[in-house]
Fold this protein.
Amino acid sequence: MKDNWIVFEEYIVEMLKEIDPYCSRTPGSGNGGCKSDVKTMLPLQIECKQRNTKDVTIRMNVWDKLKKEIPFHVNKLPVYCLEQKDKRRFAVLDLDDFLNLYVEYWKLKQGE
């Protein structure tokens, strides 16, 4: 039986494969190997945390590490994905990144 954190990462990968067929789990991300938990061609740097608790917590050391792992010359958004024991799932973005995404989305919708 697979660990819950692996199932959570696989869920994210399967959802993203609809728009990035090369999306995959990153082997060895937790042991200092590759950066982030999900490898994608999308402009996202994704870290996943699955917790067997009722609440979800944004751990600032994880968030800071996620942001620092993005190379300066790469335009990727850090996304902190969380799942709690009831399988409720969340994606955390920096507020400015979220607002910029929404403004860009709105501009595209206005141009239709």
